[in-house]
Prior knowledge:
This protein has 80 residues and is α+β, with helices and mostly antiparallel strands. It has helices at residues 14-30, 66-73; strands at 2-7, 34-39.
Amino acid sequence: PLVVSEIASIDRNVGSVYNFTVQLANFMDNADWIFEYGFFGCMRNLADGFVSPDAQLMRPDGHFTELMWKLQNEQPMVPP
């Protein structure tokens, strides 16, 4: 089994970020050889400018973004 960590889109287009996240999460949820996975960006402030701000999973006020709620609650995920 494989553990995949620190996944995030670097695209600056919110639609592309959501599509990337939806497709990848759904793929990994159905791959029997992936034990678990985790997306990068669940922090109030991103560490650098490499990861897209649209891929951030936590807002500066400490609340989850819409993308994080989708990751947690939609299986399979659907595009917005």
